[in-house]
């Protein structure tokens, strides 16, 4: 990056030319306008959603966040059930997705022979390209039956009788539900997390690793004690990026979560999430209070994902700055 | 003493082998799911493909036959609208970031917000467009759908334009400016030409992304059972039709959903693989 160019004001670049100065000024204002437009979009989205949800917040107050009732007929709306579903499915997705992503990233950067690194990385990235509605269909028609036939009965038999955590694995093997959604979400976010991890693992200075090897460290010890600590910030940033995706993912979850407004301890039970509720009910919400309640849910999702994504971005930027120096 | 340290070393070796094997298993697991998902789509989709897919309209419930012609057309129109809206704004905003905002706080802010938009839940974009387009006009429409897609299209283009322009060496800018050419002409004739492949593949990547988007269309474009080219009316589109048909209890609808899903996935993956490979080749240099 040349500093001289950066400090050069746009409208003095061609000051001696007849058309230059005016043209440059106009061009500058056009591109600045487009840049500011991007900024304005986010603000406008936040404001419009806040306005849309205003009626619900005014009507139900703080109880909107803590109540569990969702009854369009009686015009009673409260958001705890979808909020709970969003948090539980995202948590499950992270519990499953993070270790697997870490494994894939370590395998690609440290274990796999050079010749197959590219293809494997490309294949994992292909997972990210599949439209989310395809995950939903696959989840509903193929994976949910697989879960109810093979996985859930085993979990219910083996983990169900254990005190405390047994409650999580009780009930009927329906196939759809929190656990299935969590797994489908995990598959969806693995490409994002693992590609961030892979990229940052690749830039760990070779000297650091070599000196650890020279002291007699095994490969795994190098990963655990050198590579991961060195890239910690970016790794957490990548995880947050995945969390942001998981929180707001709509179509995949809508298919396999069951869309019922109830809170159950068991992970086998169907539930709903903010995004799934919006997808299922918004087009049919006819009266203002119903629609406003849905917009209020949207606002909550927006605020939460904004915080998560902003944190992810800040951590990744800090890592990139370290790398640049 | 020697045997003790020997066994300790052995234990560490075994531990390492176990951990690395688990990493290998994780990778295999990831690939298994990839193949499984693609295989499911391929099998269901291929068996449901038929010529009527492209010639007939979406059928009413419980009726045999029918295709997805109106939905394909609707998707095409909305994607084209999104590209028309999103490309100029995106390229120019990317130009601002790379050419005029270096080291400025406002540039950092825009880049930050753009990255947030890039990963923001798409259903939020749908809700936003509903509030600003559908509600004031009080009708679902193809325009609203296209605008919603444009907001998802935009950040991808901004980002790739920004990155591709920054890859253009400063020597080229300096050489052109030293000839006394005004800056806007340098940008249009030198920089855009140098970065054109990259920007174009970025646009392709963005098209791939919006082609499969469902959530933002659910309450902007909605759906339409008939052939319609009127973008001020509700409009059929592939993702929403797939959603409705797949969730329905009718087998014929589900078959059509699989056929649509197959075509959509094929298009999206081909677009994204092609654009990614070009981008990687350019970025790697």
UniProtKB/TrEMBL annotation, chain A:
It is found in: Cell inner membrane; Cell membrane. The keyword Metal-binding does not apply. The chain crosses the membrane at residues 26-57, 77-108, 120-138, 176-197, 294-316. Gene3D superfamilies: MetI-like (1.10.3720.10). Signal peptide: none annotated. Its main location: membrane. PROSITE patterns: ABC_TM1. It is a multi-pass membrane protein. InterPro entries: MetI-like, MetI-like_sf, Phosphate_PstC, Phosphate_Transport_Permease. Keywords: Cell inner membrane, Cell membrane, Membrane, Phosphate transport, Transmembrane, Transmembrane helix, Transport. It comes from the Bacteria. Pfam families: BPD_transp_1. Residues 83-312 form the ABC transmembrane type-1 domain. This is Phosphate transport system permease protein.
TrEMBL record, chain B:
The keyword Membrane applies. It is a multi-pass membrane protein. It is found in: Cell inner membrane; Cell membrane. The chain crosses the membrane at residues 17-39, 71-97, 109-128, 140-158, 190-210, 256-279. It comes from the Bacteria. InterPro entries: MetI-like, MetI-like_sf, Phosphate_PstA, Phosphate_transprt_permease. The keyword Electron transport does not apply. Residues 72-275 form the ABC transmembrane type-1 domain. Keywords: Cell membrane, Membrane, Phosphate transport, Transmembrane, Transmembrane helix, Transport. NCBIfam families: 3a0107s02c (TIGR00974). Belongs to the binding-protein-dependent transport system permease family. CysTW subfamily. This is Phosphate transport system permease protein PstA. It comes from Rhizobium viscosum.
